[in-house]
Write a structure and sequence with these properties.
This is 6-phosphogluconate dehydrogenase, decarboxylating. By secondary structure, this protein is of the alpha/beta class. It contains 20 helices and 9 strands. It has 3 domains: about 180 residues, Rossmann fold, CATH 3.40.50.720; about 240 residues, N-(1-d-carboxylethyl)-l-norvaline Dehydrogenase, domain 2 (Orthogonal Bundle), CATH 1.10.1040; about 35 residues, 6-Phosphogluconate Dehydrogenase, domain 3 (Single alpha-helices involved in coiled-coils or other helix-helix interfaces, Up-down Bundle), CATH 1.20.5.320. The strands form 2 sheets. A 7-stranded mixed β-sheet has the order 3-2-1-4-5-6-7, sandwiched between helices. Bound molecules: 6-phosphogluconic acid (6PG).
Length: about 475
């Protein structure tokens, strides 16, 4: 008997999704390339490891895998983004038939997804570029899914995706049709950008508390006490991490302070720059990781310029309020980027629905995210929604205070500082951009607009001639 759904790529995420599908009663086929020079058959070994995979069919032959699936075939790819995905699609394409659906669930760049969709459509194959968030545990127990592509393709695979997805507070699946082309992967990319800034804010909080003489355990106690009012998955895991000991030491103290990345934060920063959206916190959290990578330089610099001083004068309440304010700004910037991309690409993204599918399963789920579907549905500017206004008015002084104190004692807080600087700029009716306009006109005759004629007309001044007059 043929199976209902196929999965290619039995890495950490692929394996967990197979078990999730099997757990929901789907008969599945699983394929992993037979590793050359190795004895074991990855798919067979995996099947034998878990009782829920009793009915699942394992393959290391792609043709046999394809033949085992009911038509139209539904095949999900969970292979590394980039070249490996293209190579696999090349191999798979000749084996498929018209109306088969391929779902690609890696962290792919949205422009690759668009190209792949076009390529497959020439052959009558339907393509869904699907963002998958939640890591290994999410994939196993319910990820947040962001499928994009042809709506007709999504309809065919919808029952499978909705069944395996996490469920929100109303038991609705954390999976919704995102939009055409690469929109699913674009949305996942921005999810990761927001994730970068959320992670960096917590890292900065940890640093501030360490500089005020707290042990990881004491910091964990403080962060743990925040959960009642400002919970998030990332806060929870941070508390766990800070409490973890190895032998007689905090494990965190033994972890090298150099952070890597796989590219999505970089892509989000580029997309924000291309679309003209000041997603400054995402960009800054990416660059904070880059600064961390220069460990050798940092060591020499510290030896030359001296260490950051203790920052004992920052109290817990200030840090908490600053953290809450900064999170609001981060979410605003991320959703503003999504809104702009939607308008430019004509994707018609439903931002409220996006926030809803991020309330569970994904890495950026949080109590704040749970409030966003209603706020975004109201159509209000997120930073002008009455609830946000009340909160930001209350917390902004702490954000300013925290950043000033950290700057004075040389504790780097790049993302907190982007939050307050963005806020100050974005809430200033007058900025010094008039001087930028004048400078551009002075050296390059780029022209400028005036505020005394409604900004309608273009002007140019011969600055050298009028100098001083
Ligand atoms: C998720 C995560 C996941 C992964 C990213 C992070 O939503 O489940 O975002 O996709 O952690 O690869 O990438 P970096 O390696 O760039 O931090």
């Amino acid at each position: 008997k043929k199976t209902e759904f196929g999965l290619i790529g039995l890495g950490v995420m692929g394996k967990s999704l197979c078990r999730n599908l099997a757990h929901h009663g789907f008969r599945i086929s699983m394929y992993n390339r037979h590793a050359p020079g190795q004895e074991e058959h990855i798919a067979t070994d995996f099947k034998n490891e878990f009782p829920e995979l009793r009915e699942a069919l394992p393959f290391d032959d792609l043709q046999a895998f394809v033949n085992s699936l009911q038509a139209p075939r539904k095949i999900m790819l969970m292979v590394p983004a980039g070249k490996p995905t293209d190579l696999l699609l090349e191999e798979l394409l000749p084996l498929l038939s018209e109306n088969d659906v391929v779902i690609e669930g890696g962290n792919s760049h949205y422009t690759d997804t668009r190209k792949r969709g076009e390529l497959l459509s020439v052959h009558g194959i339907l393509f869904v570029g699907c963002g998958v968030s939640g890591g290994e545990e999410g994939a196993l127990n319910g990820p947040s899914l962001m499928p994009g592509g042809e709506k007709s393709a999504y309809r065919i695979v919808r029952p499978f995706l909705e069944a395996i997805a996490a469920k929100d507070g109303n038991r609705e699946p954390c999976c919704a049709y995102i939009g055409p082309e690469g929109s699913g992967h674009f949305v996942k990319m921005v999810h990761n950008g927001i994730e970068y800034a959320e992670m960096q804010l917590l890292a900065e909080v940890y640093h501030i508390f360490a500089k005020t003489g707290r042990s990881p355990d004491q910091t964990a106690d403080i962060l743990g006490s925040w959960k009642a009012e400002e919970n998030s998955f990332l806060l929870e895991i941070t508390v766990d991490i800070l409490r973890t000991r190895e032998d007689d030491h905090w494990l965190i103290d033994r972890i090298l302070d150099k952070a890597g990345n796989k590219g999505t934060g970089n892509w989000t920063t580029i997309a924000a720059a291309e679309l003209g959206i000041p997603a400054t916190m995402i960009a800054s959290s990416l660059f904070a990781r880059y600064i961390s990578a220069f460990k050798d330089d940092r060591e020499i610099m510290e030896a030359t310029y001296g260490q950051a001083s203790e920052t004992s004068h920052i109290d817990k309440k200030t840090v908490f309020e600053a953290y809450r304010a900064a999170r609001l700004v981060n979410h605003y910037q991320g959703f503003r980027l999504l809104r702009e991309a939607s308008a430019i690409h004509g994707w018609d993204l439903n931002l409220s629905e996006l926030a809803r599918i991020w309330t569970n399963g994904c890495i950026i789920r949080s109590s704040l995210m749970e409030k966003l579907p209603a706020i975004l549905r109201s159509g209000d500017h997120m930073l002008l929604h009455p609830e946000t206004v009340t909160s930001l008015k209350a917390w902004k002084p702490s954000l300013s205070k925290l950043v000033s104190a950290c700057v004075e004692s040389a504790v780097p807080v790049p993302v907190f500082s982007e939050a307050i600087n963005f806020f100050n700029g974005f809430s200033s009716a007058h900025l010094p951009a008039n001087l930028i306009q004048a400078q551009r006109d002075y050296f390059g005759a780029h022209t400028y607009r005036r505020n005394d004629d409604g900004g309608e007309k273009i002007h140019h001044t011969n600055w050298k001639k009028t100098k001083g007059s």
